[in-house]
Protein: Sugar kinase
Organism: Subsaximicrobium wynnwilliamsii
Amino acid sequence: MSKLVIVGTVAFDAIETPFGKTDKILGGAATFIGLAASQFDVDSAAVSIVGGDFPQEYLELLSNRNINIDGVEIVKEGKTFFWSGKYHNDMNTRDTLATELNVLADFNPDVPKAYRNADVVMLGNLHPMVQMSVLEQMESKPQLAILDTMNFWMDCALEDLHKVIAKIDVITINDEEARQLTGEYSLVVAARKIQELGPTYVVIKKGEHGALLFHENNMFYAPALPLEEVFDPTGAGDTFAGGFAGYLAKTEDYSFENMKNAVIYGSTLASFCVEKFGTERMQNLTSDEIDHRLKEFKQLTQFNIELS
Amino acid sequence: MSKLVIVGTVAFDAIETPFGKTDKILGGAATFIGLAASQFDVDSAAVSIVGGDFPQEYLELLSNRNINIDGVEIVKEGKTFFWSGKYHNDMNTRDTLATELNVLADFNPDVPKAYRNADVVMLGNLHPMVQMSVLEQMESKPQLAILDTMNFWMDCALEDLHKVIAKIDVITINDEEARQLTGEYSLVVAARKIQELGPTYVVIKKGEHGALLFHENNMFYAPALPLEEVFDPTGAGDTFAGGFAGYLAKTEDYSFENMKNAVIYGSTLASFCVEKFGTERMQNLTSDEIDHRLKEFKQLTQFNIELS
């Protein structure tokens, strides 16, 4: 069975949307990535940090999904990373109400020995030097290293970001961030410039407009499933990344053709994530539900023009 | 051979983009629709109005593409409709610099007798009562009536717009307009509400993000082909509509399954339109070029997940 290392935040989120608001609930990039990846038959390990205030039941929620949590450091006297945000009516924009780094400020990830030969490494959004540290701990070069990042690091740690981008195989990034990183408006041109920085594969996430996969001169486009209602977009990007990474780790096929399927799985899982607050929908998602939605994706995108 | 009636403006456009600017060049909804539809083996007629200032060579450009122009009224003492616009750097937004209605202010469309039994009627963006007048001139109910409209008519002629929407089979509308018409943010909900107004099929155009087709509980999504460079978006929506209408008229199959193909043809033709100023790219487009781009669309969207 393939091994997958997931590094990222395990956190508390408090979310307000036009549909309601939550108290502190389970959140964090590694949480969403892990829950999505756990839909696939892979041996995953989360590498993260939490405070003494983090409920045991949340940790069990992860380990019950066969996510190894030996690499989740618990700082008894510390507090868990906390993020709070409020979504606008269009659900595409949000205001950050609070960001309390807490224990994350001193996070030195420690990949468990048993996972230092992992096949796939998924670097969730964190300081680029923290991401780099995980890569450096790997005893053998992973088959695939995937990196997610955001504009914040382009603003305040661009040089470090360039260093880690040079080391990875796949980057997942949203459209505005791809434009910021390259200074190019066209996503086709931006993706080419990002490939020149290191990663052979570039995934550009466009939120409700889907995701684009670029590799050399090849492109693939997966729409987001149009939904009646987006309840809470928090974690959708991480869920996408988790589905993408989990599917590739399971199939052990890192070709462009198979990455198309991985993008579809990522989009499919993300379409569930947004249906409820936080991780709620992802906690009890069944494989039948996933199969049914994959069929909807197929109907949504497949057509039958015969070409000579 | 199927007959296709196209009503819309035949006009002068002056366009400014980050790549350059034009003098008065050939434009207008019926022009773009007609040029796109002329890629298919159909008997098309344009119904429009121009002034005495309109060059004979522009009319010949249409008739040379086998578009019947008996329904294009020439008002010798009048001036042709003129639109001028300037696109912003993102190419998704533009300022209208001038709109001179001229002869369009008194346009009473007159569908040539030979086309009053047309199979397909494509109502380009115009005052809803002008669109209605064309429908009323038809001697037999067309197999398919398609309507394009815009927010301007929602602002100033909503009641008339509702009347004509109730009479047609397919509406093409952009995402913001669909939201304005229904007061719903979710495009899935908006499309359902629009279907309740009359049209069985709803096409929502999302510009660089592609187009969605809705019919009962079915959805289909065609991306826009990601391009290195969008040179001039003018006419892309009309070109989409012309490809859509032309393909359906040629194939005489008005099912949802075939409309998927029509949406792909529309998107394909629109992807050429934006490569040059105005109608330039559409004037010399070959079927080989179209076939090649259809293959690119297939590669862009088709995947191979086996489902049980």
User: Anything to note?
Assistant: Chain A has one domain: 3-301.
